[in-house]
Write a structure and sequence with these properties.
Layout lengths: L3 H6 L2 E4 L5 E5 L4 E2 L6 H13 L1 H8 L1 E7 L5 H13 L3 E9 L2 H9 L8 H5 L8 E2 L11 E3 L4 E9 L2 H4 L11 E4 L13 H12 L4 E4 L4 H9 L3 E4 L10 E4 L10 E2 L26 H12 L5
Parallel strand pairs: 4-5, 4-9, 5-8, 6-8, 9-10
Antiparallel strand pairs: 1-2, 2-3, 7-8, 10-12, 11-12, 11-13
Amino acid sequence: MPGEEETRQAPGLVVTADGSVTLFNEDAGELYHNSAGAYTEALKNYVEPSCAVDTLQRTGTLSVLDVCFGMGYNSFVLLQHLAESGVTGQVVIKGIENDPAVHTLAFSHVLEDPRLQEARALLPATPVPTGAAPQVSSGAAPQVSSPTGLQVVLEVVLDDLRHELPKLPEHEEYDIVFHDPFSPRRVPQLWTADIFRRYHRLLAARRGRVLTYSIAGAVRGGLMEAGFAVWRTTAVGGKYGGTLAMFPGDQPPPGCQPGEAGFGERKGGRRSLVPFRDPDFSATKDELLLRRSSEQADYEI
């Protein structure tokens, strides 16, 4: 029988408006996905604006860093989208997730969705090998092939993002980063300009892109400070949409709107774009909020 602490932290399953399931996390006080639809959010805020089909057609390979892998929706919907498109090639996905219980639900619940039938066929029948770095390496994950010509390598490292990200070799290149933690107001530690700079270096050689559901000013400001141009992706439910971060000069997919400023902001102007800063990846939530508040005080409203 689980102890009191384990029971308190155990999230409960919730059915979202599009029929897909998500979880409610009591500690964060948030759902893991948009209540309008976990599947729909993954498709509209992550997969479609990633232009993954174009990248795989052009290069024959696709490398994805799925941060806060959680229940796996972003990666699973991506695989489904690729399979439905008929594109061929190798897809390598590296996930980072700090909650093994939530990760297990990816295989016991999410892949039961009939909309993910082809994605399920591309994955092992049992959960992928996991473990805290450095025990799990990219070579530890099995490759699964399908009759459609897609070869998939999926690895999920069970570790905190701020521990794992600095360990990634800078020669390890990614086409896409899915960034999907709880909201910036809950965990600002995972939304810093310093994390986004790491992404910029990992993406630079292949001119990839970062996708997230958040349009918070601190998030867009941090991405811009890291060297990205930002765009707004399709709105899902009652939200304003998500954020697509690309290298300046790259063309966004159809339907994306400029996102440097203006959307989702009530007041504050440039003050709202002041990012969270954590250069040594060790600050607490309160320290980050205080630093940002102090820096914002230098701006006039």
